[in-house]
Amino acid sequence: MVTILDQILKKQNRFISIRWKLVSTYLLLVIIALIIINLFISQTILNIYLDQEKLDSLTSANTISNRIKYYLTPISSEMIEIDGYLKGIVESYSKEIESRIIIVNNNNIVKGDSNGRFIGEVFKHDEIQKALKGDVNSSIYKLKQFGNVMYVAVPIKMGDDIIGATLVSTSLNDIYTMVDEINKKLVVISLTSILIIAFLSFVFAGFLAKPIDKFISTIKKISHGNLEEKVTIETNDEFKKMADIFNTMVTKLNQVDTQRKDFVANVSHELRTPLSSIKLLSESLVHQEEGNIEIYKEFLKDINDEVDRLNNIISDLLTLVDMDKKKLHLDYKTTYINYLLERIVHQIKPLAEEKSIDLNLKTNEQIQINIDSDKIKQAIINIIHNGIKYTKEGGYVNVSLYSKDNFAIIEIEDNGIGIDKDSLAHIFDRFYRVDKARSRNTGGTGLGLSITHQIVSLHQGTIEVESEPEKGTTFYIKLPTDVGVV
Ligand code: ADP
User: Fold this and answer.
1) What are the pocket residues of ligand 1 if the criterion is a CB atom closer than 6 Å to any ligand atom?
2) Stretch 352-360: mean pLDDT
3) For residue 93, which of 141, 255, 365, 475 sits 20 to 30 Å off, Cα-Cα?
4) What count of Cα atoms within 13 Å lies in the side-chain half-sphere of residue 44?
5) What percent of the chain has pLDDT over 70?
6) Using CA atoms, how far apart are residues 207 and 211, in angstroms rounded to an integer?
């Protein structure tokens, strides 16, 4: 049999299962984290190298400035010779530090150039201009021809006077190539990590999703009618809690289902017994050869009694069904419960007298409560009837009324056959009878106390019982005095 649940599960796409959702979430988070970490590492390494390069270039620029400052403003007779010295120093130092060096005087005229290209020309580069104003400065450029280049410019000072500026230009291509290499390695490490994490998260997500799979398989079995199934979860987390609640719910469902089955079986059995008697009696009548009016009358009386029994069972059942469906309308009215008890006792007295049972009422208080008096009357009559039914001739049934802690308590005590401890727990169950034969003989259906219990519960009251076999039974109906007040 294909259930609705099976159809739902069939429709479910494997790739949107919780396991895949967990794996993709882990991976997304890991990828984002790795991108951020890689960018941070690569930028930090680049900055460290660039800072170092800047420091080296500044040191070099200052060193060369100090070496050549005396050759920058020579007197004209020494000019040619001095320019030769300057050229030599600049070229050899440029080779040493592997950078281009340009020296300008304070008129922006190039006095030294390790490439020799700009000697004698006016050179108004930004960095040079700043250095001539006293600023030690640096910049990085990406040039088409040379790639990444760092310019560092420092002023050349003679005492407090700025007599020129030195520009050191260094290629940064080695640094960028090295950082690119590091980046490539980081990417390889990251991809490997992602693969490992993908595998591990798939395995872990499997562990996490396992309880859900267990739930699904159990729910499937339950949907096929197997209410004995339970989910067993070993972990000590929310899934365990969920499993406990789920199992309690299924146990309850199972109980309700068993009760329903028992009820149907009981009803069928209870209806069948009088019907079988009727069938037997009527068949006997049909096969009677000689018409003896007395026998006819007796059999018909028995049939009549059985029909009454059937009627009682069916009307009790209908009352219970109405109460189950909460269809039973309670017609609340403020009632003097002491007067109600007086009327009930007066009504039942003849029945008690028939059995020589002393039925007494003791009400010292006038208690007014908001109740559906017809229903409460039915509940009380059921219990007093039972008291009379299950008490031997000459016994007593005492009814009393008193109030305690916002409750009106109706106590019904008899000195009858009593109820043993085991049965006491079941007397409010439907069709439960301690002694089936005795109950049937006295016209009992086994539904009376169940109806009484329901009526009292609907009034937000409780019903308690104390009993001792052969000594007697006492019922306590406790009704809140503010019941039905909205
Ligand atoms: P019944 O119609 O059989 O009386 P009830 O639901 O009223 O059904 O009562 C259930 C069972 O509880 C009875 O069959 C009887 O065995 C027991 N019982 C109820 N009241 C008393 C009582 N006062 N004394 C002894 N047994 C009682």
Assistant:
1) 382, 386-387, 390, 414, 416-419, 427, 432-435, 439, 444-450, 473
2) 95
3) 141
4) 6
5) 91
6) 8
- Strand 137-143 with 110-113, pairing: unpaired
Alpha-carbon distance of 98 to 79, in angstroms, equals 28
Nearest to 401 by CA among 374, 376, 428, 375: 376
Q: Decide: helix, strand or coil at residue 237.
A: coil
**Whole-angstrom Cα distance, residue 72 to residue 16?**
77
Q: Say which residue, 78 or 326, is predicted with more confidence.
A: 326
> Ligand 1, residues 270, 316, 390: which to mutate, most atoms within 8 A of Cβ?
390
Residues in the chain, overall count = 486
Question: Which of 386, 430, 475 maximizes ligand 1 atoms within 8 Å of its Cβ, making it the mutation to test the pocket?
Answer: 386
**The pLDDT of residue 78 is above 60:** no
Is pTM, for the whole model, over 0.90? no
Q: Residue 3: its pLDDT value, please?
A: 59
Distances (CA, A) of 101 to 52, 57, 146, 323: 18, 10, 15, 105
**DSSP H/E element including 14:** none
pLDDT tens, 122-142?
Answer: 988 899 999 999 999 999 999
pLDDT of the residue at 442: 67
Retrieve residue 374's tokens: 């017809």
Cα distance between residue 358 and residue 353, in whole Å: 7
Q: Where are the beta strands (DSSP E) in 364-404?
A: 368-371, 396-404
Q: Is 239 helix (H, G, I), strand (E, B) or coil?
A: helix
Mean pLDDT of 415-444: 83
Q: What is the Cα 205 distance to its own chain's centre?
A: 18
